[in-house]
Amino acid sequence: MSSDDSPSRTPNKPTDDAEASTENRSTADRSPPTAERPVSDGGRATGFDRIETRHAVGVAAILAVAAGLLVAPGVYGAVTGPDGTVAVVEIDGTIDSATAQHVEDNLRDARTNDSIEAVVLEVDSGGGLPAQSERMYAAVDRTASVMPVYAAVDTLGASGAYLAIAPADRIYVAPSAQAVGSVGVAGTAPAPSGPNAGTTGPDKRGSDPDTQRERRQTLANLFLENVIEQRGDEIELDREEIAHADAYLGTEAVENGFADEFGFVDGAVADAASEAGLDDYRVDARRTESRIPGGIPLLERDDGTVVVADGADGELGDGLILAVAPAAWDETVGDDVIMTSYTGRLPADGDATDPTTDDAAAENGGDGE
Length: 369
Fold this sequence. Notes:
Helix content: 25-40%
Radius of gyration: 43 Å
Structural class: alpha/beta
Order of helices and strands: HHEHEEHEHEEEHHEHEHEEEEEHEH
Number of helices: 11
Distance between the termini: 157 Å
């Protein structure tokens, strides 16, 4: 065998050069590719640089999420806030022009304020002037047509005050409330008045007793009709019984339908908010700065008759006519003036024409004191 006939190499055993070449390829395949981004020294970023950058980005993202968890609740609360507002409007004390203005102004604001979704009337009043009570009645009726209006009676919610809250969607009373209802007007007994040289006309000094009685009866009829219109489906009494002008305890008022249920202001607020669809709400209490009013201004004539007056000279009526419950009479007028009540039931033929006694007042469907 010649030197040229050396044994051939087996295919499975590569030469040294082939082995080196194969190792280089394997090493190259296992090595991560280098990044193609430039670095500050003008070279190319290594794989380590890229990993380090990703790590920094990940840490920043985690910190951002953590900061969001800490900040977001406060921001969310500040942005959303409550769903709306329940306004609580106070009706306190004897009703006069100041009371009516307070209620009218605040109910008007409730109707025009987009954030107010419901109203609660917080009531502790035995009544007062008829015309001012009717002003409040109209304001409550108008407001109840656009949003839930609830009323909560504490101790007194009678006569003119009851008239004012009659249009409310629901009336809540404390079980121990002392006077609720009393649908009628009250005043002094009509008295004749003689001629007066200081007047400019024969009737300026005052009308005759029959005319005075008719005027009071007209006011009482208006009172009765308004209450029946608003509460007729709830009140379990007939017209004649309502016209008797009784004032009921809280327990009696719920039983006979003058009130809907037992409750207080907080419960009325929560229920009014629920009726308005408010899950989260704020309460805006519209209270008077002091108890209003201090009393009904009265004027005693030379002949001893008493009339409702505005100031020292301006007479508003021929005699004392108030939409006030007997329970509030002494506080409103005092002990020196005898009260005769008038209701929505007209006197029958043959009844006394001068109801100055208790019996005559009772015949007119009211109470005498």
